[in-house]
Amino acid sequence: MQKLENFLLNHPGRTFFFLIIIAIPAFFINLGQLVLFADEPTRANVALEMILSKNYAVPTIGAEYYYNKPPFYNWILAGAYQLSGNFSEFSTRLPAIIPMFLFAISIYFSVSYFLKDQRVAALSGMLFLVNGRMLIYDSMLGHIDILYSWLTFSSFLLIFYYLQKKNWFLLFFSSYLLTAITFLCKGLPSLVFQGFTLLAVLAYTKNFKKLFSWQHVLSGLICVFIIAAYFWNYSGYNPNLEGYFSTILDQSSRRTVTETGISAGLIHFFSFPFEHAGHLFPASLLLLFCFHKGFIPGIKNNRFLSFLSIVFLVNIWVYWLSPQTRPRYLLMLYPLLFILWSHAYFTYRDQLPKTNRFFNTMLLILALLLTTCIAGALFFDLECYVAYLWPKVLGLILLGGIITYLLFRLKSGKIFAFISLLIVLRLAFSWFVIPHRFEHLEDRKYRDAMMEMGHLSKNSAFYMYRYHPSELDIPFHDRLIFYIQRTRMQQVKFTGEDRKPGYYFTFDRSLDNSKARLVKTYRNFKLYQVK
Description:
This protein is mainly alpha-helical. It has 3 domains: 67-348, no CATH class; 353-440; 443-530, no CATH class. It is 66% helix and 5% strand. The strands form 2 sheets. It has a 5-stranded mixed beta sheet, with no helix packed on it. Strand 1 and strand 2 (64-65) form a beta hairpin. Helix 5 (89-115) packs antiparallel against helix 6 (118-130) and helix 6 (118-130) packs parallel to helix 20 (414-440). The longest helix has 27 residues, at 89-115. The protein is globular, with a radius of gyration of 25 Å.
């Protein structure tokens, strides 16, 4: 036990990478089992249609222009499809999951470099992987946000790195280069992050006049040039740039109080910190150590921690005042908190003995509950679709019990033992919860129906007949389109006519063409053929 304690104390870097290695199978097992959901099929459709049309400049869905997001992430996703040789759910999620691990590693190396404390680096890097939001939700989805947030976080770090060296050109150039890339991922939020961060940091460090320097002007122009070059090339295929820009602007402004009303805005304002503390649990338990009287002075006396605090405060208010903000929009800001909280934990835990005892007791109680919960997998009739159920459950319970015992016996390394238990929990989630969802959610039935439609209509034209869903229904309908297109390996098209030869997909309606033959009905979907 003492040897383990000494290892955790003297080698936090090795501990971090050991935890990263054991986390890889926990996050990757059954990653591709669930049907695409939420925004995944929208990203997948755009990438798939780029490959089918051989046009990577113009995002489309159903051969119609898609304006909501620029295409950088879709280029990466299309590359993942081509490298893997398939369009599977697993391949769709790789461009998000690989950056998740790179993000955690980036946190570790940056904190090690700037703060010179590998304990804080290891803990804050792992907290990015095992906070509640990431552990059982965002890490399963092929969304744009993890990659986007990693690039934005990297821009923050580059600003700080070159600020310390007083290299103004590289400070502006590197951050604006990443801003151009992230703009081509997600649009206007990138300009907001860059603008607010530079204004606040330069004002705080009394370098505000550098905003008028040639280094800043030139770097800003390079950023504008990169963005403009994409849209200039795009205009050669579709001259409707006004529609593109207005949609991007609308996407960035629609979640504000002006869209939701004052009452919803007030509720969001007061619930926001508590809601996100819940999303980040159990990492948010480290807030307890931030109540030490030396916490704020300690931040002020450390340039790196001061920088992180400024970046967080100057950017968080945009989301705090936007009622429809989703947690994944803040993934670039969460690590700033993890670093501050980890610093507080290792700096003040010995000075707060009562708080530390309460914290350790909470970890032990959570460990016992989580280990017990694993046994619940035996009561959901999983034997039919989870191979070796009993050995898996018993093995994880035994492993959880050993870790809980270590957590009880260890003195200074309890937090890392608890993180390893959270990784075990994620492994249990991947082994048991994901297959259960796959078997019981209706998503699989819809996917199978769309793939059947795709097989029946192969080598014929395929039309979505008078099919323009409301905004809230778009993720579901994009999923239908993706599975049809993936099966056919041909683009579907939208139409308001029903006279052209081919197959027609309808939703809660029939074709007007009396010569159309009803091929099959799938609940509220119908497939017609016109010869």
